[in-house]
Structures are given as C-alpha cells and as structure tokens.
Specification:
By secondary structure, this protein is α+β, with helices and mostly antiparallel strands. It has helices at about 10-15, 30-45, 70-80; strands at about 1-5, 5-10, 20-25, 55, 60-65.
C-alpha cells in the first residue's frame, strides 16, 4: 500500500532495501548534512530511500536510511558518521 500516489510506505522500503543506517537527530536537525546526504546519493545515481523513524527509550529520535546492499550502506555510514 502506498501513502502517496506512487510512493512506497516506509515499511515497504525497508522490506525491499534491507540494509539500514540510522542517524540520531540532534537538536537543530540535520541542516546542511541532509543536503550532503542527498548529494551523496545523487553522485552515485542512487535514489535516497528512508525507512521508518523511531524514538529510543530515552526519547532520542532516529532516522533510518535504507540501501539495497551492505557495501553501499557501509560507505554511507562511514562518510556521515552513523552509529
């Protein structure tokens, strides 16, 4: 099922792109880092795909990026310092 016409739900994205990289969203958001993340995808001709966001037990908010293969996910995590 799609949320918007032509856009897959976050759950469907996670099913189709099973390699995840999670980033904590600190106070003030991602700012310029978000643009750099989208530019990173664009430079590799990869469509940026985000999965479900979550909060941990301490209330910290995390955003999840999804990839088709582990090597690409690892490169993204290394570039942007994911936990």
């Amino acid at each position: 099922m799609t949320r918007y016409k032509g856009r897959a739900s976050a759950k469907a994205v996670e099913r189709d792109f099973p390699h995840f990289v999670e980033f904590p969203i600190l106070e003030g958001g991602l700012r310029d880092r978000l643009n750099a993340m989208h530019d990173w995808h664009l430079a590799r001709s990869i469509q940026a795909r985000r999965g479900q966001s979550r909060r941990d037990e301490n209330g910290q908010y995390f955003v999840r990026w999804c990839f088709a293969d582990q090597e690409t996910a690892d490169a993204f995590a290394q570039k942007f310092g994911a936990r």
